[in-house]
Structures are given as structure tokens and as C-alpha cells.
Amino acid sequence: MPKPSIPAHPNGEMMKAVCFTSYGEGSDALSVQSIPKPFVEKSDEVLIKVHAAALNPIDKSRLKGDLAMLLPEQYDTSVLGYDVSGIVEQVGNDASTSFAIGDEVFVRLAGMKYGAIAEYVVCTVPEIAKKPSNISFSEAAAVPLAGLTALQLLRYGGVKEGSKVFIPGGAGGVGSIGIQIAKKMLKASYVCTTASPGAGTDICNSAGADRIIDYRTDDFVEVLKGEDFDMAFDTMNEADKFGGLIKEGGKVISISGNPSIQAIMDIMPNPPLAVRFFMFLLRNRKAEKAASRAGASWEYKFMHPSGKDLTEIAEYLESGEIKPFIDTEVSMDDFKVAVDKLLSGRSKGKCIIKVV
Length: 356
Hints:
Helix 3 (144-156) crosses helix 4 (173-185). Helices cover 28% and strands 26% of the residues. The longest helix has 13 residues, at 144-156. The protein is α/β, with parallel strands linked by helices. The protein has helices spanning 57-64, 137-141, 144-156, 173-185, 199-207, 220-223, 261-267, 273-282, 285-293, 307-319, 335-344, and strands at 14-20, 31-36, 45-54, 78-79, 83-91, 104-108, 120-124, 128-130, 164-167, 190-195, 211-214, 229-234, 246-254, 297-300, 326-331, 350-354. The chain starts with 13 loop residues before the first strand and ends with a strand. Strand 9, helix 4 and strand 10 (190-195) form a beta-alpha-beta unit.
């Protein structure tokens, strides 16, 4: 059955956005198109004029169609991206008690109605936080999805003052801000990570990692055997290798690889039987067994958009205790440069598309 078109703006207003109309493997599946400008329909909604948007690995999965069963596209034309920063241009009646026209904000968009790489987005008050005044729109756009993922799941994993934490992939978007959140916000005493020499290691050092393992020359499985980490944050689909380094009673939390049925139900309370069956077959048995043998637990978790959590992170951005790392920054017309860098898997930090 054909999908509907994006709803027209009441006044016929249009905007530019980076869109796809069919799934594809690379940036050639995307193009800058003119589509209807979003508009405030509900009292808790806010219209934001976008200044910058950021790419994340989930954008690659979405573009390829890997999420089609769980999160099908709503319209025949889809806008890429989840992370955005910009200036409030219009507010609904209820939203006006939280935000005002002219406020600088940043947000991880919820749902799939509109994507971030566009001249305008509409979102609801619970998703939004005010942008710290001391960082740029590009820096702000680099934070939401990665920052929320790290904060929520490190907390869920029990990271607190004195914790010993393993966060592989420390030069990536989630890894680099995760190290900082673990150390600065949650007061972990020791954070170990993995990275390549050069720029990757430099980012991890700047983020405050206590130990950096060169994954090109050393196998962390052997190097860290018996280290007894309180929590291991699986950002690289390697949870099946963590059994020898997690302590009894510890937690392994994954955000990469195949999600568990429970994780799916957290974002889709009543998944179709076909989805349940499919995810049961693909569940990460090796990760479950590795954690179980160590007397630890393994779970897959998704991030939930939260303006409240983002506001908490904003305090540390404003104080300078946490900073985002940017690899690539381009204009909307040059979006393929950023998308190709993301797809290459070689970015060190976030890939940003400047809209203004």
C-alpha cells in the first residue's frame, strides 16, 4: 500500500531538507528536496528554525531499511536525522510556558514524522532543552542522541561514584561523550576504553579516559582479563567478549547489535508476533551466556528522548566539563561529504550538517 505524502503546510510554505524516497546503501539514495514546511498543530509543540543537525549510526541503519520492521517510515518522502539545534520560531499555547520565540535550543527528535536535516522541525516540549550559550549550534547538535544514550544507559548500568567502567570505542560519538559523563557527571573512578593511535587516542585522552588500549595491537579480551569492571558499555557489538572482564554482579549494557525482545517492547509495547519471532531468533545468545558465566547480567537498551536529561547535560556543557568532538562540518548542499564519512565508519567525533 503506498505511503501518504507529507502533509501540506496550511499556507503552502515549503522548505529544503535532505530526504530519501527509497532505501539505499549510500549517500546517493539521498537528495536535497523541497518539501512542505512543518507547522505547530498541537498546544505542546514548538517550531524550530534549524541551524545545525548531526548524523548518528542509526541514520545509516534507517537509510538501509534495517529499521523498517520496527519503525516504518510514515510518508513517501523521509527526512534523515534525529539531532538538531536551532532557534524557536513558534510555540503552541501550552509550550509557551516553557519556551519563547528566540530561545536557542537543542533536541533529539522523537518519532519519525520529520527528520533533523531540514530548515525547520517541529517537536514537543518534553524533548527540548535550552542550548548552553557558550557553545555553537554545531556543538549543540552533536550532543543529544549520543549524550542521552550515554547518560541514561550508564545510569541504568549502575555507574556511580567510585565505579570502574569499560567503554570501548572511545573516539566514537557515544564513546567520547560517555567517557566524560561517566567521569564528570556520574563520578566513576576509573574508565577504560579502546581506540586507534593518533586522533582517536587524542580524543580519548581529552575526554578523560584513565586507560586507552590500542585495538590495533592489543586484544582487550586478554589485556583486561580479570579486571572486574562494575559495568561494561557495549558500543561496538562486542558484548560476547566481556565475560572475562566484568565482575560478578556487574552489568553489561549493549546499544549495538541485535536488540533483545524486551528492548523492543520498551519502545513498542505490543510488537507484532512476526517481530517477536524474528527478534527471538536473532537474540544475542553469546552475550547472554558470556555475562551469565561471569555471574553478571546482560541487557540491550534503547535511549529515550528527554529534554530533562538533556538539560542536565547542558549544565556540564556550560561549565566546560563536557565537550563534544566534531569530525566533519559541512553545509546542507555538501551533505554527502558528512554522510559518506559516517558510512565509512572512520569518523572521529560527530559529523555535522550546518543548515544556517
